[in-house]
């Protein structure tokens, strides 16, 4: 079973093996990554986190868990430009620096093993966590509590005043949604470092996870364009055209399709 097959096998488990699936993403990018060894090593981290938690009901241990992770050195990666290692879980476990989503996935696995209730929230621009029933969200980068006004401020810092806080911004994320977001992050990080082949690996995974958007197909089409694969580029541009609701984008996609060579089939 190759890493991509192992990744989807994790998703088919009940419940899905979210953390292991994320490790298989790392293994797909680096043949030296041993998912089995990382899972074994994670037990030591679990013990160190557990030993530093206060004696409270598990429903009150969400924030202490994140603070304990912070005490052990887990922080948001501030290195600029951000590198793919900030989203590859094997690297984040080693350096203890990562994107909020990567830190969140580690926190969710620790919470699962320690039976602490916690879920992920696909907040725009900054992945967050929630203890079910709580009136606040938690920042995986240190455990800060975020109430509705804090969320509005965070959203405004990320996207400006024109986007308003909506219910879907605070919805619980499914394992598939979190892994698709991780794949999109990696696609962009690899692309920003001109690593088109690794970006393509992530772009393919995004679409294999389902519910791909026009921008997802367009991102892969641009990678195929760079790699001089016009037939594959045409396929993705046509799908982006079908999904796009922006008339200007649709016009540009139509023009771009018109400049591609005719589709050829090799027998």
Structure report:
Belongs to the UPF0162 family. This is Protein SirB1. The protein has helices at 3-11, 18-29, 35-51, 62-71, 89-95, 100-113, 148-159, 175-192, 196-208, 214-226, 230-243, 247-258; strands spanning 75-76, 97-98, 119-121, 128-130, 137-138, 145-146. With 267 residues, the chain is mostly helical. It has 2 domains: 3-170, no CATH class; 175-258, Serine Threonine Protein Phosphatase 5, Tetratricopeptide repeat (Alpha Horseshoe), CATH 1.25.40.10. The model has no long low-confidence stretch (mean pLDDT 96).
Number of helices: 12
Q: Oligomerization state of this entry?
A: single chain
Beta strands, count: 6
Strand order of the largest sheet: 1-2
Q: Shape, please?
A: globular
Strand count, sense and barrel status of the largest sheet are: 2 strands, parallel
Protein name: Protein SirB1
Organism: Pseudomonas chlororaphis
Family: Belongs to the UPF0162 family.
InterPro entries: SirB1_N (IPR032698)
Summarize the SSE layout with pairings.
Elements: H1 3-11, H2 18-29, H3 35-51, H4 62-71, E1 75-76, H5 89-95, E2 97-98, H6 100-113, E3 119-121, E4 128-130, E5 137-138, E6 145-146, H7 148-159, H8 175-192, H9 196-208, H10 214-226, H11 230-243, H12 247-258
Parallel strand pairs: 1-2
Antiparallel strand pairs: 3-4, 5-6
Helix pairs in contact: 1-2, 2-8, 8-9, 9-10, 10-11, 11-12
Organism: Pseudomonas chlororaphis
Pfam family, one: Transglut_core2
Protein name: Protein SirB1
């Amino acid at each position: 079973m190759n890493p991509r097959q192992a990744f989807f096998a994790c998703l088919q488990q009940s419940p899905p093996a979210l953390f292991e699936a994320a490790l298989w993403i790392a293994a797909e990018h680096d043949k030296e990554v041993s998912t089995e060894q990382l899972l074994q090593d994670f037990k030591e981290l679990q013990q160190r986190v557990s030993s530093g938690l206060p004696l409270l009901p598990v429903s009150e241990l969400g924030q202490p868990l994140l603070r304990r992770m912070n005490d052990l050195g887990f922080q948001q990666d501030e290195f600029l430009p951000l590198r793919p290692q900030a989203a590859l879980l094997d690297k984040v476990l080693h350096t203890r620096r990562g994107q909020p989503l990567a830190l969140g996935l580690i926190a969710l696995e620790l919470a699962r093993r320690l039976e602490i209730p916690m879920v992920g929230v696909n907040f725009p621009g900054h992945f967050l966590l929630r203890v079910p029933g709580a009136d606040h969200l938690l920042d995986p980068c240190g455990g800060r509590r975020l109430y509705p006004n804090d969320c509005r401020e965070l959203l405004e810092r990320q996207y400006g005043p024109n986007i308003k806080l909506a219910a879907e911004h605070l919805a619980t994320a499914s394992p598939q949604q979190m892994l698709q977001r991780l794949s999109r992050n990696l696609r962009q990080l690899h692309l920003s470092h001109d690593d088109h082949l690794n970006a393509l690996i992530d772009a393919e995974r995004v679409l294999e996870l389902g519910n791909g958007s026009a921008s997802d197909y367009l991102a892969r089409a641009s990678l195929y364009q760079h790699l001089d694969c016009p037939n594959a580029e045409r396929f993705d541009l046509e799908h982006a055209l079908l999904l796009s609701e922006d008339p200007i984008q649709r016009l540009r996609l139509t023009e771009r399709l018109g400049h591609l060579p005719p589709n050829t089939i090799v027998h």
